[in-house]
Amino acid sequence: MNILELLRPQPGLRVLVSGGAAGIGAAIADAFSQADATVYVCDVDPSAIERTRQRHPTIHTGIANVSNGAQVEAIMDDVHAKLGGLDILINNAGIAGPTGGIDAIEPDDWERTVSTNLNSQYYFLRKAVPLLKATSASPSIIAMSSVAGRLGYAFRTPYASTKWAIVGLVKSLAIELGPSNIRVNAILPGVVEGERMYRVIAARAEATGVSFNEMKGQYLAKISLRRMVTVDDIAAMTLFLASPAGRNISGQAISVDGNVEYL
């Protein structure tokens, strides 16, 4: 096979993207759609889902709060009904969580971050793995962690804790599911350009008593390439991992971050 052909995912893959109606998730859904995959997107935001429907009428959609196990189960039933199975699970949904010292973080904010970022991964996995085991296409699970899943992150402890946990989940599942030919990897985005990151920078600037521009400069100074990454950078990595070129990559936590040196 031509090496360039190895870099293109197999046409017709059935792909589920959680949190797929905006940001990184939307870029991933768009990329797989352009690669001739059959894509299902779920999201908590009805307006974002409607924009997805308008932009890509062929993408299947559902609305769910991913921290609610019953709602995730309903989404998985709908995925099975509409796609007839599943080849790729992109466990992408997550929130930034609160910014502040550990003694200032409210229990409800901590629990909401853990439920959305970590528990949701389990809710999807428990229903998706039987479908992945049943497919003859090269099945793959891609979990969205963060550079905060390999580095400490002061004032963002709930977020960092969940992202470290996702790496442990991925490495454990790669061992567990490898004999079933299911590959499991995590992507660790760095500082992703966009409104969500700007909100994080603003919150951290306020928490530490500096200006937005000063805090943004501090973020960029920590990146070897001195630039943010884009949602398309992340989407490109998901396509690679789902392609034949990635068939022997499993159990990896892959940073797409311009080499963030510290947080």
TrEMBL record:
<dbReference type="InterPro" id="IPR036291">
    <property type="entry name" value="NAD(P)-bd_dom_sf"/>
</dbReference>
<dbReference type="Pfam" id="PF13561">
    <property type="entry name" value="adh_short_C2"/>
</dbReference>
<dbReference type="InterPro" id="IPR002347">
    <property type="entry name" value="SDR_fam"/>
</dbReference>
<comment type="similarity">
    <text>Belongs to the short-chain dehydrogenases/reductases (SDR) family.</text>
</comment>
<dbReference type="InterPro" id="IPR020904">
    <property type="entry name" value="Sc_DH/Rdtase_CS"/>
</dbReference>
<protein>
    <submittedName>
        <fullName>SDR family oxidoreductase</fullName>
    </submittedName>
</protein>
